[in-house]
Amino acid sequence: MDGNGRWAKSRGWKRVRGHQEGVNSVRAITTECARLGVQSLTLYAFSVENWKRPKAEINFLMKLLRSFLVDERPTLMENNIRLHCIGRLDDLPAESLKELRETEAMTKDHDGMVLRLALSYGSRSELADAARAMAEDVQAGKLEPSAIHDETLREYLYDPSTPDPDLLIRTAGEMRLSNFLLWQISYAEFFVAAMGWPEFREDALHVALDNYGGRTRKFGGLVSDVAPETPAPTQGR
User: Fold this and answer.
1) pLDDT of 227
2) How many CA atoms lie within 13 A of 109 on its CB side?
3) What SS3 class is residue 16?
4) Strand 114-121's sheet: what is its strand order?
5) Does 234 have pLDDT greater than 50?
6) 54 φ, ψ to 5°?
7) Structure confidence by residue, pLDDT tens digits, 21-77
8) Which of 51, 69, 79, 97 has fewest C-beta within 10 Å?
9) Cα separation, 96 vs 122, whole angstroms
């Protein structure tokens, strides 16, 4: 969700104004994805690298996170959305982590879309944490090295139930992965929007989904190998 600060500065405002407006985009996109039938939506909200930002901005973002987790509970409840967060969550301030766990608990029985917030997240950190846990299981005799295969590592990721994304959307014209779900996006389709995240709303989402719906996904095979059931854009998968 890039471009909050740049969006605000281009209008002569402080960077924090962009983060505030970005919350409105989160609400709009989350609600629309749930309406369209998207099964899983992961939002990269705060990276492990973001801890390097000025302390004042970090404090503001953590306060904004707490407010979001409380204020958006009615939206999550009304739309049957289950919240689940991934990342090094223990790095979060105690107050933010408390509200996060409470919101997760409130929505745990919802069977609609899963909204994953990536907080204090970095894919390299996730892979390192997974490799460490796997090594510990090997050392403890719980896992045989000969039994490790392509999908074994997935079982040690922050949330093994996270499906491989079909579509990765980046805003503000960014053309890099930025350490996001590197294991999971092996075959994801990319869509880059020039606008910043505060401007990315339902119409922009529809453009991205329509673009995705017109692509042929081969997963390394030939066109003739692809199943004929190409997801319709309105499914938002």
Assistant:
1) 55
2) 1
3) helix
4) 40-47, 114-121, 82-86
5) no
6) -55, 145
7) 999 999 999 999 999 999 999 999 999 999 999 999 999 999 999 999 999 999 999
8) 51
9) 19
> Domains plus CATH for the chain?
4-212 (3.40.1180.10)
Check if the beta carbon of residue 5 is closer than 8 Å to that of residue 18.
yes
Q: How far apart are CA 116 and CA 113, in angstroms?
A: 10
Active site residues: 2, 50
Report CA-CA distances (Å) from 59 to 17, 63, 64, 161: 14, 6, 9, 31
pLDDT (tens digit per residue) in 107-127: 999 999 999 999 999 999 999
The crossing angle, in degrees rounded to 10, of helices 15-36 and 202-213 is 50
What does the alpha-carbon distance between residue 86 and residue 121 come to, in Å, rounded to a whole number?
Answer: 7
Please state, as a whole number, how many other Cβ atoms lie within 10 Å of the Cβ of residue 33.
21
User: pLDDT at residue 203 above 70?
Assistant: yes
